[in-house]
Design goal:
single chain; about 210 residues; alpha/beta; Rossmann fold; 8 helices; about 55% helix; globular
Length: about 210
């Protein structure tokens, strides 16, 4: 049996393409499970049948004419389903939810990258997530060209211009600066083990 928390905690991992989130998410999950916590790993967009169907549309590289407003609403729709169907129930049971991308990605990609004003997106973010607010966010920062090379640029988002992805990176760093109490920035310039030591140190302090 995992540890029973009075309330659940939502930990998000953010970062641009090729930042290595998946590796660090698995590490954080193993660490918390070893300490007896019940952990649920989810991804955005995805995590439910409805959200995964929306994911396939969003990443379909043949849909070259998709407008950023359409993109925004699809991401929000996928999140709404994930929050109601998976995140809220897990948090109510006192579990730790580790999420690969969340609302900060929406701000970085569709606002900083796509040009939709933050003030237009933020109310929708709050409406969709309700009370499922991140307790802690790890931002894996990576050089844009290096990250895109790692990713392989296979889907519709990855195939966007270099200038777009540079704006996304700046957006993430701006959000981290504005929310310094929640964000922990991890640099890809450090080795995987060095990054994991920092994650362990933060989790030791928070859990």
């Amino acid at each position: 049996m995992g540890k029973s928390l009075k309330k659940g905690y939502l930990i998000t991992f953010e970062g641009a393409e090729g930042s290595g989130k998946s590796t660090q998410i698995r590490f954080a999950s193993r660490l918390l499970k070893k300490r007896g916590y019940s952990v649920v790993i989810l991804r955005e967009p995805g995590g439910t049948a409805t959200s995964e169907a929306i994911r396939r549309i969003l990443l379909d590289k043949t849909l070259k004419e998709m407008e950023v407003e359409t993109e925004l609403l699809l991401y929000l729709a996928a999140r709404a389903q994930l929050v109601r169907e998976r995140i809220e129930p897990a948090l109510k049971k006192g579990k730790v939810v580790i999420l690969d991308r969340y609302e900060d990605s929406t701000l970085a990609y569709q606002s900083f990258g796509g040009g939709i004003p933050l003030r237009a997106i933020e109310p929708f973010n709050r409406f969709v997530r309700g009370g499922s607010i991140p307790y802690l966010t790890f931002l894996l920062d990576v050089d844009t060209k290096q990250g895109l090379k790692r990713s392989g640029r296979n889907d519709r988002i990855e195939k966007k211009s270099l200038s777009f992805h540079k704006r996304v990176r700046r957006g993430f760093l701006t959000l981290a600066k504005r929310n310094a109490r929640r964000f922990v920035i991890l640099s890809s310039k450090e080795s995987i083990k060095e990054v994991q030591k920092k994650i362990m140190k933060v989790l030791d302090a928070r859990f």
